[in-house]
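A protein record pairs a chain with a discrete description of its three-dimensional fold. The following entry can be read in just this way.
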Amino acid sequence: MSAERPLSIDIEPCDCGVIIRPHGDVDLSSSPDLRTALREAIARNPDTAIVDLAAVAYMDSSGVATLVEALQLARRNNSRLVLCQLNDRVQSIFQIARLDAIFTIVDDLDAASEVSD
């Protein structure tokens, strides 16, 4: 699917830490790029790393695994990892795998910023 929606990733600082914004599909071919971006962002030890998934229409298991790795890394670095703005399709992946109980998932950036307070 990534041929239809190539992945680009924006990273920007915010008051609570950092926002990582992938744009495009997160699948087997693009998840290594997301993994690298997440590792680099979390290595800076932000209080909170917010992954804004508003522009991700599709995510496969490799994308989910990448986010699980990021969550583990964030916890080791005493940072929070918050996911926000998941569309229904991506949200359902987390619910089916029961990862919605493991991740902090919120509706929007405002809510994500409040989690960090």
Summary: The chain is about 40% helix and 25% strand. The longest strand covers residues 8-14.
